[in-house]
Amino acid sequence: MSATKETLLTGLVAFLLFAPLTGVSLDGYGLNPHWQNPFLLAGMAMLGRLLLVRLQGLRLPVGLAGYDWQTRLQRPILAVVVIAALIFPWLVGKYWLNVATLALIYVLLALGLNIVVGLAGLLDLGFVAFYAVGAYFYALTFKYLDLSFWIALPGGALLAGLCGMLLGFPVLRMHGDYLAIVTLGFGEIVRLVLNNWIDFTNGPNGVRAPFPSFFGLDFSRHPMPGKSSFHQFFHLSYSPIHKDIFLFILLFFIVCGMVYFVRRLRRMPLGRAWEALREDEIACRALGINHVTVKLSAFGIGAMTGGIGGAFFAASQGFVNPTSFTFMESAHILAIVVLGGMGSTAGVIAAAVILTFLPEALRDFAEYRGLMFGCAMVMMMIWRPRGLLRSRRALFQREQSAC
Amino acid sequence: MLTVRELCMRFGGVLALNRVGFEVATGSVTALIGPNGAGKTTVFNCITGFYKASSGEIRLHGETGEKNLIAILGEPLQAGDVLHPKELAKKIYYKMFGGAHLATRAGVVRTFQNVRLFKEMTAMENLLVAQRHRVDWRPLSGLVKSRGYRRKEAAAVERGWYWLDFFGLGEDGNRLAGELPYGRQRRLEMARAMCVEPRLLCLDEPAAGLNPNETRELSGLIRQLRDRHGVTVCLIEHDMGLVMEISDHVVVLDHGQVIARGTPREVGEDPLVLEAYLGISGEEAA
Fold first, then answer.
1. Is the reported ipTM for this assembly greater than 0.90?
2. CA angle at A242 for the pair A238 and A246, rounded to the nearest 5°
3. Is the CB of B112 less than 8 angstroms away from the CB of A283?
4. Record: contact A287-B99, CB cut-off 8 A
């Protein structure tokens, strides 16, 4: 069947299906037609079918060469995603914008954990500790030292990275289960310290974290005397959503930077060494790779990403307390990494977005959330144990390297 | 090239190696043979730094001087060390950062009895991991793809293709190492070891699991490595045909002791060796 025929057939079926469902609505005893709805939906179905057919046509035979259509579509897809992300905050309300911000934070966390678990193969169940370090660093430095978000962001990242390396040292000789248990303990230690060191961290009552400023301009309706506010400076009428849009776009660019960083890393000596370490540590040592520094760098860079995520979490919530950093949170991030496919960047991003939006969209089924989540995990492990998307490998040609 | 003297290795109460001593001459192929459980792989593990020998010495000689392959694994600290702060600092450094990777950096590279490739990575990536010394590790230059980084990376890739071609794996550069057939995996492991640019290449049963044709090719390759690339080879092997064909010097181990050394012919006629292998005494054999 030709592509056109198939597309038209899909459109017809979709129209027949959607016309009675969405084309009319009941209004008292009368019917109100909404003819644009079925046409729109059928059009979308046709477009989707067309794309699918085209993609299948492009697919090459088995082996690594089969991924070619993905490389070809990479740039257009990337452009669409970026434009969509930049338009998105102006179209939706505050609620969905906050959900999207949370999704981006999870993308960041999952990318960080993906370095440790997916690339370096070190099972870390206490990743939330670094998230907490980043968040609390921002809140506490503001409380005691009055540091701004823009200093706390790199500071928190560095501190979290340092904590990661610190955790790395005692666990250098551990693998698998043992490593998982030690990291689990580390995560709990951090949470319990935050919970019980009441003089310093204010314990379960939490600490306030202010909203970041935009080049020194804050987002309040009535700024402090002598200072200018964002809406005054740009002569806009005040809207509380400005600051959420700002945070979303800022976070979006940081996530983009992180994605680029991780993608490059996989083709760089350091990332290759991580993956080699995951595959076979003994062989790595036999090739002269110092497994100590390689492991520590994986822990450190992963934790750093977690720290950045934490600072954004604190800024978006305006408040942090230890209940946000329980083991369930670690498990959630780990689930994202596992569902997305260990080591695959695109898969992890998709999983983070889906796993944040889906529970919000299905609020009515909140009671069954855990059940559905569990079922999804079981099904994934049976049918796609390597995750939604399998990671791609770098290809090399003769006479020129595929950088 | 390599001198092993009085090497003892104790695992609890078991004396796995008992005062083993032998030498590997520069530019030679030395074979280490012996019945199962004789301690051949233990010797290898000591030389390549995976085991820390209980006593004895292993020294690697080269143009850059001598290197003590036991010290780099970290020696126990003693009270007397306080008097020699320089030595002490060295010991502490090796205790913290020492390990098998330093033996590799000194020029001793090994392959494994059971192939240890990075299975989920392509053959070329396997070779690139091995070229630690050739590529630019700095994250920043890799992120911005600086000119120096690209040049080094390209050189490493080119080197990788060279060794792939050498071992007849030219078609497999972009295939996952784990999906290659067994014989090719073995050769890829040797190619990966060669990417480290070893001075002493230690092969642990390179012919295990190969068919007679592949074994014949292998002996040709090993000879080429020695003649064309100046690599000294030390190998453990059970295939006597291969050992007799390519080795210049044979060391026979039994129960953790060296029972014979010499050229393949000398060793083949040694009554002790016959006894160890066939379980009969020399007189009966004669």
1. no
2. 150
3. yes
4. no
Whole-model pTM? 0.81
How would you classify the pairing of strands B14-24 and B29-33?
A: unpaired
When scoring A260, A297, A401 by the number of chain B Cβ atoms within 10 A, the one with the most, hence best to mutate, is A401
Q: Do B116 and A280 touch (CB under 8 A)?
A: yes
CA B124 → CA A70, A90, A270, A313, distances in Å? 21, 47, 16, 41
Which structure tokens are listed for B230?
Answer: 């100046």
Can you give the residue ranges of every domain in chain B? Answer: 2-107+198-285, 117-197
Cβ within 8 Å, pair A403-B153: yes
Alpha-carbon span A186 to A190, nearest angstrom: 6
> If we measure between CA atoms, which residue out of A33, A62, A227, A327 comes closest to residue B175?
A62
What pLDDT does residue A403 have? 44
Strand partners, B257: B254
**Interchain CB contact of B110 with A (< 8 Å):** yes
- Could you say which of 3.90.1150.10, 3.30.420.40, 3.40.50.300, 3.90.226.10 is the CATH number of the domain covering B2-107+198-285? 3.40.50.300
Say what the pLDDT of residue A64 is. Answer: 44
Cα dihedral angle (B131, B137, B139, B145), rounded to 10 degrees? Answer: -70
Query: Which tens digits make up the pLDDT trace of B98-144?
Result: 777 888 888 889 999 889 999 989 999 999 999 988 888 888 888 88
Do A393 and B119 lie within an 8 Å CB cutoff?
no
* Residue A280 with chain B: CB contacts under 8 Å: 116-119
Q: Which of A101-110, B8-17, B273-282 has the least mean pLDDT?
A: B273-282
